[in-house]
Amino acid sequence: MSEKNPAAEPPRLPLTGLRVVELGHYIAAPFATRLLADLGAEVIKVEPPEGDPVRGWGSAVDGNAVWFSVHGRNKLSVTLNLKDAADKAKLKRLVGTADALVENFRPGQLERYGLGPAELHAVNPRLVIARISGYGQDGPYRDKPAFGAIGEAMGGLRHLTANPGQSEHPPPRCGVSISDDLAGMYAAMGLVAACWQVKGDPAARGRIIDVDLVSSVFSLMEGMLPEYGLFGWVRQPQGAAIKTAAPTNTYPCADGKWLCIAGNSDLIFRRMMAAIGRPEFATDPRFASNALRCENVAELDAAIAAWTRTQTGAEAEAILEAAEVPCSRLYDMRDCAEDPHFRARDLVMQVEDPLLGTVLHPAAPFRFDGVAPRDMVRWTGPAAGAHNDQVFPKEDAP
């Protein structure tokens, strides 16, 4: 797959024709615009002359960050110095042609550049502006700095990732910048909703969307807030299990792998007990219902773990799958990249990156009839400023 000219792309994706300017750095805003670009939007990523700082993160080939191949895919890259008057004028002219803008500076930074919503709406009254920050555009914590880990911590997620009885160890992060990604998803959703409203009303003015890392994580806390409000309950870390269903846990295997098993319905539980050679558990009154299994889960988990320790992860998975018991080994990236289901559905795609060579890309997380997953990756993350000449008309050239 080689770099393509987006103007040559057929209008098959749902956001074709939507023009979005990205003033994003690091993760949250670029993640939002990556989703929009995968859906067909024309995303113009505005970077400082030295490029997005994330271009210096992680592994690289000849100085080109591997992650950026995905992070910047399907986007046009231009470079501007937002402290320079001439470049700010170029940005305003670009905003005048756009439907939306996404930014994730600290609150007030855009205004300090002279590019706040008032100035942008003076140029384009129908512009939708999505703003992503650590704590939001108002409130007492508005001006505090924040990265993804802070969103996890304050939003309630990191408290839940601890293992019970291991208070001497800090609760681990989930391994990716989940709060940035969540905020990016919510920003993309809010942007599309606002653009839909503006499109449907000729008199509508552009909306301002305020998304933050903390509330994005907090939104995932299920029924924990009403439980606290009504009963004073504070959900505590559960480890790999949950209190409301059994057996649902992750069990050790003979080869050092772990097997996640969700056998909590009565029918599945009986099939599972037969499969692991413990049919007596299926008829034991102590395990006759999910509620009773939860009360006696320690004995049940011990019996399941005793069986998984006699099997490799793949062997145990095959036995339980034959009995139609939901289960999976804990996949690492090698497992994902080599799994036949991932490959058959093009969840893992081999693409050609002009900066890196042949690389693997994850598919976009949505499917549309008539569009192959590979068609949604039109080009890989470009070099900083690669599209300056394409985006800016000649009168904007220095």
UniProtKB/TrEMBL annotation:
<dbReference type="InterPro" id="IPR023606">
    <property type="entry name" value="CoA-Trfase_III_dom_1_sf"/>
</dbReference>
<dbReference type="InterPro" id="IPR050509">
    <property type="entry name" value="CoA-transferase_III"/>
</dbReference>
<protein>
    <submittedName>
        <fullName>CoA transferase</fullName>
    </submittedName>
</protein>
<dbReference type="Pfam" id="PF02515">
    <property type="entry name" value="CoA_transf_3"/>
</dbReference>
<dbReference type="InterPro" id="IPR044855">
    <property type="entry name" value="CoA-Trfase_III_dom3_sf"/>
</dbReference>
<dbReference type="GO" id="GO:0016740">
    <property type="term" value="F:transferase activity"/>
</dbReference>
<keyword id="KW-0808">Transferase</keyword>
<dbReference type="InterPro" id="IPR003673">
    <property type="entry name" value="CoA-Trfase_fam_III"/>
</dbReference>
